[in-house]
Design brief:
The structure is a single chain. By secondary structure, this protein is mainly alpha-helical. 43% of the residues lie in helices and 5% in strands. The protein has 5 helices and 2 strands; from the N terminus they run βααααβα. The protein is globular and about 25 Å long.
Length: 77
Amino acid sequence: MPNRVRVNLANPAELLELPGIGPEQARAILKFRAEHGPIQDAKQLAAILRAWPVAETIWDRVAFDPADSTAPEAPGA
């Protein structure tokens, strides 16, 4: 099974590994993260990507780990 992509920590190249995600979708994800913070769940990601058809297989590959608490430099880590 392919690795899951941590959508809240992924760089543009890693986002492109997701099924059906191209440069425009990756930019939309990055823009949302910059403006609103971490993506909480599949429903929120679907809303971000609503302008494009999304492959059903994407949901098996996405992880929604919070960005802040998983960073090694986070306080208390």
